[in-house]
């Protein structure tokens, strides 16, 4: 059997210089080529450097582009040198320039990688997310005198075409794996943390097998689901950084602050934010850190999106000292009626969560005052048969709630809806009820009965129990509590619910939250209830939305 031949020298030439190395090596000429592509053909599209030549930051050039495109190996089967890396995982905090870098790489793979019939895919959880990189790439093409002559941008199809090589770059969402071409040369999966599964990624990998040097790149910020596909890829990237030889075809760039590091020490922030002080403002991070130190929910956001740390999916939402500071005048028993000093019924907004069978039913009234604050009062009902379980979950407190009138029992093992309807009718006569926000799960027959009892002047608005549906009310409610502009009068049932509630954040938008039952160890999460939080959030959202809509237009109407 003949001995294997030594591979030839690389021979790659750029700017009049030839690479004379052989075997696995770093080819400076290849690295210089991709850097020159960015510097000479691309421009920035946003901010203070918009329309100026793309200025690579040192971390972009030396931390990502040069090693990613410069490392090569000899491919015996193809008989040529090819890129060492076929998969890249790039993770850093938000607003550090991932999108523009990814757009530039996509264009390089499309037009400058020497590939005929190149198929480049811009991927994300949905088409709107995938468009973020595409839109930047399309603008780069339009602003480049060279690329605009060679490439055709087809916005209606979210596609950029190079007719001279029969190559294209197009947008595809995560659910389009069945429609993929069979031979992608490159792909950019933006914000992998939002990927519903690894199906699209795996389809891209297997489809790229016939290409000699395909490149699949995942860009992402840290997530919150450690069972997700993104976390599995992150974990693999960490192992690659610790032992590059364990997966020589994988490239990893992970900029993060260690989990045990002080999150408030500014010296740690650049570890996750290589663009800090460049096109990311230190003052912005300082302001966000100041807010995060006072709010556990915001601390999680700061850790995840500014420090690039993987965090828990859920976290406790309301510190009990904050809730207690908002008591106002404590009531020994419920006072349901509200009347203005002039004797006219007060305007009110309501939230309703009707339960099924053995669960808690919650009705909340938010009664605004003249100073931008509000009284918040609840009624709660429970089937009589469910009291023993609730008493056990509350350490016996449920019996006192019934005795003092905070909790109303209905006969039997299911909620008596007629008792709920009667109480709502009573409250509708005591206040000027403007709107009832309700959980759509309540069912149309119940909604119709309530509408009949309260009359046509009261608007009934369904609130989807989703991130988009519940986040506005939760955010407004927390802001009111922090400024101590709500008074709950020490309602003990509400306190129990607020003590239990946790919030979960949307994977793709740190500003969106929704309340969930606790999963904390030792809390008995399955026996906890959060109904008072849900109804308060819905009622507050109804009030604040109506208040914004009723404001008088300012002098700049139309601008």
How would you sum up this structure, described in words?
With 559 residues, the chain is an alpha/beta fold. It folds into three domains: 13-255, P-loop containing nucleotide triphosphate hydrolases (Rossmann fold, 3-Layer(aba) Sandwich), CATH 3.40.50.300; 257-311, no CATH class; 320-549, 2-Layer Sandwich (Nucleotidyltransferase, domain 5), CATH 3.30.420.240. It has 17 helices and 23 strands. The strands form five sheets. Strands 8-9-10-7-11-12-6-13 form an eight-stranded mixed β-sheet, with helices on both faces. A hairpin with a 5-residue loop joins β16 (361-368) and β17 (374-383). α8 (282-292) packs antiparallel against α9 and α13 (417-430) packs parallel to α14 (444-454). The longest helix is centred in the C-terminal third of the chain and has 20 residues, at 531-550. The chain is elongated, with a radius of gyration of 30 Å. Residues 520-525 and 555-559 have low confidence and may be disordered.
| CATH architecture descriptor text of the largest domain | 3-Layer(aba) Sandwich
Largest sheet geometry: 8 strands, mixed
- For the record, the count of structural domains works out to 3
Query: What is the first-to-last residue Cα distance?
Result: 80 Å
CATH C-level class of the largest domain is: Alpha Beta
Report the count of strand segments: 23
In quaternary terms, these chains amount to single chain
- Detail the poorly predicted runs: 520-525, 555-559
Query: How much of the sequence is in beta strands?
Result: 15-25%
Neighbour order of strands in the largest sheet: 8-9-10-7-11-12-6-13
Going by helix content, strand content and strand pairing, the class is alpha/beta
